[in-house]
Amino acid sequence: LFRTLSIVILGILIAYSSVFSPNLTASASSGIAGLKAKFLRPGEIPFPEENPYSVAKERLGKVLFFDPILSEKNNMSCATCHNPGLGWEDGLPKAIGFNMDVLGRKTPTIINAAWAELLMWDGRFESLEEQVLGPIQAAGEMHQDLEDLIVELSAIAGYRTLFSAAFPGEKISPELVGKAIATYERTIVSSIAPFDRWVSGDDDAISSLAKEGFNIFNGKANCVACHASWALTDSGFHDIGLASKDIGRASELPKIKAMKHAFKTPTLRNIVERAPYMHDGSITTLDAVVDYYGNGFAKRESLSPEMKGFSLNAREKKALLAFLKTLSSVDEAVSLPLLPR
Ligand code: HEC
Ligand code: HEC
Q1: Is the pLDDT at 252 greater than 80, yes or no?
Q2: pLDDT of residue 19
Q3: Which atom of ligand 1 is nearest to the CA of 141?
């Protein structure tokens, strides 16, 4: 009886909504509720089938991430450049690598990398597992020979224990180093920010100024054209007109005109904590970033058609900045692991 009753009630509701409010679904998805729904956080971290999560893998990956033994001179770890205290970046306009050489690009954050489709500013790596072995061997970065690294790790009893817990019965190899670090990286997720609380229904979680800013972000300033979804990135590549000579994604896709000077859209999570900005570290404050998008960029053939420019009055600009600040979460302090020796 209860089932029949609920089906009848459901039927009446559907009939009611289609008769009296034919646009119910359309208006909900075009209104503020529908807009907010596009920014809802995912329920869980995606781990790939080829490298499923385990506690032992995460533990090993964390130790490796913080261990300078990964570099030839044993003086540089992943965390040297991807420092949790600096939004998993290094606070520099361009990274400093082996022999203190200044590298060509800024260190990007690794928060929310579990969701990244392609990695690096130019998208040259397809998985975190594959990416790990890049900086370890890169002449300008950790400058490490992989065979030497495996010899070094295998000689340390603490590492043998960690590896056999994470990968029972397997020999220590570069592939396992990649799998362990990638697993740890996937656990580095920006936690609940005021914006998330607002999106999921707490109206007081952000100020009314920030709410105005959200509308500007999605409207007049058109930021959402590229900074979409919960992590505020479309995972795409665009030329936003920066003066840098770097050709970006065109090094991978030379035939596609729009990929010249195109770089991966970064997440805007915890953006306040991650200055300076852009692949070349050329913009030092968020205030200046907003001015840049308004009218600071050069027009050229490869410029994204979504770069239309705009002018905001002082209040609108303040509102947009207030919104960007709501994307910061107070993440748990990261403890440093003891390094096996
Ligand atoms: C010398 C500084 C430095 C070190 C050391 C370093 N990185 Fe990076 N990392 C960078 C820079 C710079 C980039 C961007 C380079 C590019 O796009 O060409 C980058 C990019 C990345 C990315 C891509 C992020 C994204 O969203 O596209 C990941 C992931 C990453 N590094 C992880 C690591 C890991 C893991 C280690 C240790 C094995 C490491 N890095 C060591 C500077 C460094
Ligand atoms: C056409 C796509 C597009 C639009 C529109 C756009 N962005 Fe971006 N944004 C990008 C890309 C791509 C980058 C990286 C560019 C680079 O480094 O060369 C970026 C970088 C940034 C950065 C620096 C992130 C970092 O980690 O260094 C901030 C902040 C930012 N955008 C904010 C905004 C705001 C605010 C708006 C709206 C006013 C906006 N963006 C509009 C694509 C876009």
Answers
A1: yes
A2: 37
A3: 1
Distance between Cα 287 and ligand 2 center (Å):
13
The alpha carbon of 68 and the centre of ligand 1 are apart by a number of angstroms equal to: 14
CB of 141 sitting under 6 A from ligand 1: yes
Q: What is the value of pTM for the model shown?
A: 0.92
Question: Which structure tokens are listed for 341?
Answer: 């020796």
Pairwise CA distance, residues 48 & 158, whole Å: 27
Rounded to an integer, the average pLDDT of 228-253 is: 97
* Region class of 32: left (phi > 0), else alpha (psi between -120 and 50), else beta: alpha
pLDDT of residue 155 exceeding 60:
yes
CA distance 165 to 241: 49
* Res. 107: pLDDT tops 80: yes
Closest ligand to 174 CA? 1
Question: How far is the C-alpha of 325 from the C-alpha of 319, rounded, in Å?
Answer: 10
State which amino acid sits at residue 185.
E
For ligand 2, the distance from its centroid to the CA atom of residue 267, given in whole angstroms, is: 9
Distance CA 43, CA 192 (A): 12
Pocket test for ligand 2, best of 293, 307, 312, 323 (most atoms within 8 A of CB): 293
Spatial CA neighbour of 125 closest among 273, 276, 249: 249
d(CA 185, CA 53): 11
Read off the pLDDT of each residue in 119-144 and give the average, rounded to a whole number: 96
Using a 6 Å cutoff on CB, does residue 95 contact ligand 1? yes
Residues 187 and 97: their CA atoms lie apart, in Å, by 25
Residues with Cβ within 8 Å of residue 6, at least 6 apart in sequence: none
**Predicted confidence band at 14 (pLDDT cuts at 50, 70, 90)?**
very low
Which pLDDT score is estimated for 259?
97
Contact between 278 and 106 under an 8 Å Cβ cutoff? The reply is yes
Write down how long the chain is.
Answer: 341
pLDDT tens-digit map of 29-85: 468 899 999 999 999 999 999 999 999 999 999 999 999 999 999 999 999 999 999
Residue 303 CA to residue 293 CA, distance in Å, equals 12
Interior/surface letters 17-45, b for 16+ CB within 10 angstroms, e for the rest: eeeeeeeeeeeeeeeeeebeeebebeeee
